[in-house]
């Protein structure tokens, strides 16, 4: 999934690097200078050094006109290539930064907004909130596909049958995550989520026969110590919330392992023989809707939603809608970030991203924190970063 933006060559000319230009085009540029158009060439070269896109575009237009009137067609192509290379290089520098910032903002905001909806508004219908968020995602994705902004695979019955086990785990993962967040403070949720790494690592041994190195196991032990000490020192400890979160860790690990196991089968079940990330997002959200409706009826959640006063507050719907939009934003920004960097950087940033989430969760929701609990949280965050680096060194 990683797209490495390696330098494509020497057509970009900076200062004394003009001699590094590709040999077939070097002679063309020399001809341009020799033919009396050195001033035009130097102007373009100066604009490129300033890295100003607007000026570059103007200069490109001037260069093309000059080339059509005075220079050969090959010289015009040199100018065009210079412009394209410069703009590509600028894009390569800003892409990872912008995608990383977008991913961090979306993921942090999503967790905090869900905490606001579930705790601050005391909303107890986690399944209904999940259904609403998934409906928002499906509507937006269908609209984007209708206007040809994105393309997704056709949802055939053959593909749906393969994907149902993945989706059932996905629904369970979302629901348990909602209920755990209602009872546990954000900082402890992020630390307890580290347990997912332990379960996934053990699952990889039995499912994929993939062994882990000593650094990985050391990081996993640190995570266990952090989770246990964090729970023991948590001043706002809630047994039901911890039970939901432990179940969420099992389901999250199962989702990751099942997804990787069934990915090839799912691709073979599509007409094109491939399954992109956007299609997976649509598939998960669309298939979760009927399962969510069934769960709402079984647990009689619809009656609670109908009677609760909180749904009559406009700000509640604002936060619920915003969290739904951010859920979709996470999907797109994570894919964008992966394409701009790679799994290694993505994993490390994901671990570092827990730090601002934990700090914001403690400050925004006035969570009572003891020194011991704060130490366990910091220790857990460090363990997460150490785990990511250990996986990076292994890969």
TrEMBL record:
It comes from the Eukaryota. One of its GO terms (molecular function) is antiporter activity. One of its GO terms (cellular component) is Golgi apparatus. The chain crosses the membrane at residues 97-118, 130-150, 162-181, 215-233, 239-257, 278-299, 315-338, 345-367, 373-390. Its main location: membrane. Residues 106-381 form the Sugar phosphate transporter domain. GO terms for biological process: GDP-mannose transmembrane transport. InterPro entries: Sugar_P_trans_dom, TPT_transporter. It is a multi-pass membrane protein. It is found in: Membrane. Keywords: Membrane, Transmembrane, Transmembrane helix. Signal peptide: none annotated. This is Sugar phosphate transporter domain-containing protein.
